[in-house]
Amino acid sequence: MPQEIALFNEFSIRESLTYYGTIYHMDKCDIQERIQDLIELLNLPDKNQPVSQLSGGQQRLTSIAVTMIHRPKLLILDEPTVGVDSLLRCRIWQYLERMCKNYGVTVIITTHYIEEARTAHNVGFMNNGSLLRQSNPNKLMTEYSCRSLEDVFLMLCKKKMAEDEVVRSRGGGRGVKRDNPVEVYKQTEYEERIIDKQITKHREMNYQTSATKSNKLIDRDRMRALLLKNVIRSRRNPLVFFVFYLIPIISLSFCTLTIGPKPKHVKVAVYNGEEEPRLSQTFLKRVDRFFIEEIYYPSNESAIESVISGHNAFAMTFRSNFSESFDTRILYPLDMTDDDIENSKIRLYADMSDTVVGTYVYDYLLETFQAFLMDYSVSKGYNPITFSMPVKFENPIFGVNDHSFKDYVAPGILLAITNTLPIIMSAFMIIQDQKSGCLDRAYVGGVRPIEVLFAHMIPIVFGIVFQVMVIMLLSFVVFQTTLRGYAIDVYILLFLQGIEGASIGLAISLILPDEVFAMVGISALMLPLWICSGVLWPLEAIPSYLRFFAYWSPLTLPIDSMRSVMLRGLRMYNQRVIYGYLVTVAYNIGWKDTWF
Questions:
Q1: The CATH number, out of the four listed (2.60.40.3140, 3.40.1710.10, 3.40.50.300, 3.10.270.10), of the domain defined by the range 266-387
Q2: What is the number of H-type helices and E-type strands within the chain?
Q3: Alpha-carbon span 291 to 359, nearest angstrom
Q4: Distance between CA 458 and CA 1 in Å, rounded?
Q5: In the beta sheet, which residues pair with residue 126?
Q6: pTM exceeds 0.85
Q7: What is the spatial distance between Cα 155 and Cα 140, in angstroms, rounded to a whole number?
Q8: Dist. CA 572–CA 296, nearest whole Å
């Protein structure tokens, strides 16, 4: 029994005892019988009461009950009576003595309540890591003429201090003879005969530990106990539901609604210096009022000042003779003067500190001017094609001309969400088991690491199955994200990425034993991966000396494969796509190997 409580707070007393009884291959009937006996012995509350609602003393008693439920051949207890009252301490010792006599159990106890060890067969006194003396308690009290074991311990400590002083005075202890501190208690012939008879009578009632009863690599009883444990903890912990389902929904919704849509109602200051606006008004009428909100100013300087002061994103100005100069520039280019050139310009003053908005407005105004120029050529009797740009964009091989930044980032966002959340869940579940001592207690009961791995991964895999369904339904059905390929190819890659995230979480739980350090480690690992894996920006923009490391990221090639499926309509067996799937499988195998 460990010194810490080593119990699951989500479990009830009955579930805690059933869990460890199943690990030790006890029958259900035996488990229920032992639960009732231990509850009566240790005066525990209702067996259905959660461990989290027990007092500190009751939790320790429950931990003792877990230790004794299977009647082991060797029982090691580390200060089991700390925090319990004297009456209950006496009952515990009486029960342990009865186990030793009736079932042949060997009990080793550490305690700082020296007097409670008076009924033991052997006691050993330790001080500063040294064994002072080991023998029968009554014999020690007789030998040192003491009435209590505490007085014996005090005399042994004084004797040890005197010997140490002699050792120091003789330069390290050469020539100093020390007494043998160990003296094993010998039972009388009558005691041995009685105990052997009782052990023979009740030997069939001893339960074997799982380590001695099963040598299978994966044991059915232990797996059933571990799986039941994970199911109960997940069902009673709302954080699991929140992390697996609500966070993806919230994250994906915010990303879809905030990343990629075209800006709306961008404020643009307008100064029109023409007394009789003709062409300038024609141009302004083509501007989409839903995209650009025009705010008129009385002077050129005030319009520019509004951009400087931050009230508007752009300033657009027309000079007093814009229409006449524009006619001259287009219809009579040989007669055009320098003043005509300057006066025929539409001047834009931009605040490009907001690059996204500035770029959108700049591109839109160029498109609007091209359409204005075509209309102008028709009004003057010219073929509008002669006024168009001599560059033609044919229908794209993949994608559409009216591109959306949302379509570009959607594959990376989907993969990042699916990959990151299982990392957090997987790491935190193992770390909680390690910190509570429950994982070590299970190992002592014969549980193998591979059983912990499978029992840990199975419920997470089922969670990922439904998580990916929810994410895809939200993305492709609710938000109408572009999907030109097959949904099954997207599902397989997202599922594999979720498994990879759970595998990374397992590796992190082995390296970082605390939730805070694990969260810092996950952030330190995932944020650079998000940045350099092409989630938000193309790899072609990364410096060449960083691009090599970017391709080693577990997200880089899968993101490119996801874009090929969603935006190009390629299948998963396409040569350009298959590498992302293979990399994900390889990382899955590599991360899981760290567990062993």
A1: 3.40.1710.10
A2: 24, 8
A3: 13
A4: 29
A5: 131
A6: no
A7: 11
A8: 55
